[in-house]
Amino acid sequence: MRPEIATLGLQLAAAGLIIGAIVSLLTGSAPSLGTSTRSALEPALSRIRHGSSLSRQQLADLSLLAAIGCSACAAIFDQFGVSVFMTLLLWLSRPAIQRVCREENRLLAIAGSLTTDLIIGLYVPIMAAQILIGHPFIAASMVFVVITLSWPAGGGSSVPGRTWKLSPVRA
Fold first, then answer.
1. Between 120 and which of 34, 64, 98, 154 could a Cys-Cys bridge form, CB atoms 3.0 to 4.6 Å apart?
2. Rg of the chain's alpha carbons, rounded to an integer?
3. DSSP-derived secondary structure for 111-142
4. What is the mean pLDDT of residues 87-93?
5. 22 three-class SS
6. Rounded distance, CA 113 to CA 105, Å?
């Protein structure tokens, strides 16, 4: 088989995955892909989480720093110009991701999971396209972003000193 044909086939498959990600955003099926991906990762991430003393927010921040590192490696080693932009965007999104991953109460964390499922649903096909094209550092960066958004809530309070209470009911 000629390598040009194989390369062209991989590029067409990658383009199909990216188009599929856009279509899933438009049709509303991206959150369901994100939910299924997050639920598939949850058992492994829960085992890691129970063996660690770090909070969900700290684990998410470490995973995001790994994503930023992989994206920076893509800029240096692959000389892929988009990765510089991606590195900057990931760095600037750190505070927002920390806010989304702050909540430890499972019931209260559901509100943040609606947004993260959409993002994960978009990242997974684009990540697979990057693997097919041959950009391993960008794909690894996207894997770490998916892991960052997939850390399960543990059950404690989200802010030290703040406790969740039922509101009083007037009779």
1. 34
2. 18
3. HHHHHHHHHHHHHHHHHHHHHHHT-HHHHHHH
4. 94
5. helix
6. 12
The owner of tokens 């492994």 is 44
The pair of structure tokens assigned to 90 is: 């990931």
DSSP string, 138-149: HHHHHHHHHHHH
* 161 φψ region: left (φ > 0), alpha (ψ -120 to 50), beta (else): left
pLDDT in tens, 4-38: 898 899 999 999 999 999 999 999 899 999 999 99
pLDDT above 70 (res 157): no
Residue 61's identity, in one-letter code, is: D
Residue 162: partners with Cβ closer than 8 Å, 6 or more residues away? none
Give, to the nearest 10 degrees, the angle between helix 30-50 and helix 3-27.
100
72 is written with which tokens? 């920076």
Structure tokens that stand for 16 in this block? 């199909």
